[in-house]
Design brief:
Number of domains of chain A: 1
Shape of chain A: globular
Largest sheet of chain A: 3 strands, antiparallel
Number of strands of chain A: 3
Number of strands of chain B: 0
Strand content of chain B: under 5%
CATH architecture of chain A: Orthogonal Bundle
Oligomer: heterodimer
Radius of gyration of chain A: 16 Å
Distance between the termini of chain A: 29 Å
CATH superfamily of chain A: Winged helix-like DNA-binding domain superfamily/Winged helix DNA-binding domain
Shape of chain B: elongated
Number of helices of chain A: 4
Radius of gyration of chain B: 27 Å
Strand order of the largest sheet of chain A: 1-3-2
Order of helices and strands of chain A: HEHHEEH
Chain lengths: 110, 217
C-alpha cells in the first residue's frame, strides 16, 4: 500500500490528468484511479470531494450538474485553462523526481 | 427488513450533525454512496452489507467535515474577494470610459494621452500578472489580514483623493481646454494606486492557493 503522504500529494496531478481526457465525476475518478493502480492507490472516497471543490475554487477545474444515461443526477468536472497549466507543471516536477530516483537506482546496480 | 432509504437518511443526519450542512457536498456524497452500494451489490453483497461497506469506504463524518472545513472562507477573506471583484469591474468600466474620453471627446495633448494609457496599462497588468511577483504567505489568517488591510487602504485612498485632492485640483485656475483631461489623467493615476492595492490583496490569495496541496487519504 502506498503511504498517505504520497497518495495526498499525487491526488491533484492524477485528477488533472484524468480530467484532461474529458469531463468526469467523483465516483468515476476514484474507480479509474483504483483500477489503474491495481488497488494500490487507496483514496478514502469522501475525501475526494473537498479536493475537487478546492481545485474548483482555485480555478483549475469547473463543474456542471448533469444526468447519467440512467437518469441519475451527477456533478461533472472538467479542466480549465489554469488546470492545464498546473497539470503541465505537475508532470514536469514528477518526471524530474522520477528521473532522479531512476538514476540513483541504476547507479546502485552498476 | 433493511430499509436502504431510511439507512441513507440516518447517514445524512450523521453527516449534518458533524457539520456538513451545505447541500452540494452532501448531495454529491449521497450520489457517490448510492453508486458504491450498487457496485458492492453487483459483486455479491446483500443490501445491508453493501451499505455498510459503502459508508466505510466514503469515510467518517468528522474527518470529512474537517477536510471540507479547509475550503471554508472567512468573512475577512470574503471581503477581500468581493472588494477585489468590485474593484476589478469598476476599473474595467472606468478604463474603457477614460479611453473613450481621452481619445475622442476632449482635446488632449499626446503627453496626457500617454500618461492616461500608462495608468490604464498599469491597472490591467497589475490585475493580470501582479500576483506572480508576490510572496507566498502560507498562514491563512496573516494573508487575509494583509489582504484586508490592502483593500481598506485602497478604499481610504480613493476617499481621500475624491474628498481632498480632487477638489484642490478642480479649483486651480483653468486656462486651457485641456484641464478636464488632466483631471481625468490624475483620476486615472489615483485609481491605478487603489486598483493595484486591491489586486495585491487579491493576488496574495491567488498565489497561495496555487501552492496548496490536497489530502485524499
Amino acid at each position: 500500500m502506498i503511504r498517505k503522504e504520497l497518495v495526498a500529494a499525487s491526488a491533484e496531478p492524477l485528477i488533472l490528468s484524468l480530467l484532461s481526457r474529458g469531463e468526469s465525476y467523483g465516483y468515476a475518478i476514484i474507480q479509474e484511479v483504483r483500477a489503474r493502480s491495481e488497488g494500490k492507490l487507496q483514496w478514502t472516497d469522501g475525501m475526494l470531494y473537498p479536493v475537487l471543490h478546492r481545485m474548483e475554487h482555485r480555478g483549475l477545474i469547473k463543474s456542471r450538474w448533469g444526468e447519467s444515461e440512467t437518469g441519475r443526477k451527477r456533478k461533472y468536472y472538467s479542466l480549465k485553462k489554469d488546470g492545464k497549466t498546473a497539470m503541465a507543471k505537475h508532470h514536469e516536477q514528477w518526471s524530474l523526481v522520477h528521473s532522479v530516483l531512476a538514476g540513483l537506482r541504476k547507479e546502485q546496480y552498476v | 427488513m433493511f430499509d436502504l432509504d431510511h439507512a441513507i437518511s440516518e447517514w445524512q443526519r450523521q453527516m449534518m450533525a458533524a457539520g456538513i450542512k451545505t447541500p452540494v457536498p452532501l448531495e454529491e456524497l449521497e450520489i457517490h454512496l448510492r453508486e458504491e452500494i450498487e457496485r458492492q451489490m453487483r459483486s455479491g453483497l446483500d443490501i445491508q452489507k453493501a451499505f455498510e461497506a459503502a459508508t466505510r469506504q466514503i469515510g467518517q463524518a468528522r474527518a470529512l467535515r474537517s477536510e471540507f472545513g479547509k475550503n471554508d472562507v472567512s468573512i475577512g477573506a470574503r471581503f477581500v474577494e468581493l472588494t477585489g471583484i468590485a474593484w476589478g469591474v469598476v476599473a474595467g468600466l472606468f478604463s474603457l470610459w477614460a479611453l473613450f474620453f481621452l481619445f475622442t471627446i476632449h482635446e488632449v495633448n499626446w503627453v496626457g494621452r500617454m500618461l492616461g494609457l500608462v495608468a490604464i496599462a498599469s491597472t490591467v497588468l497589475s490585475w493580470r500578472y501582479g500576483y506572480r511577483v508576490l510572496p507566498v504567505i502560507r498562514h491563512r489568517q496573516v494573508r487575509t489580514l494583509m489582504g484586508f488591510a490592502g483593500c481598506i487602504v485602497s478604499i481610504l485612498w480613493m476617499g481621500t483623493f475624491v474628498k481632498l485632492i480632487l477638489p484642490s485640483l478642480v479649483v486651480l485656475p483653468t486656462k486651457t481646454d485641456t484641464s478636464p483631461a488632466w483631471l481625468m489623467v490624475s483620476f486615472l493615476w489615483a485609481w491605478t494606486v487603489a486598483a493595484t492595492l486591491a489586486s495585491t490583496a487579491h493576488g496574495l490569495k491567488k498565489v497561495a492557493s496555487r501552492q496548496d496541496q490536497p489530502a485524499v487519504s
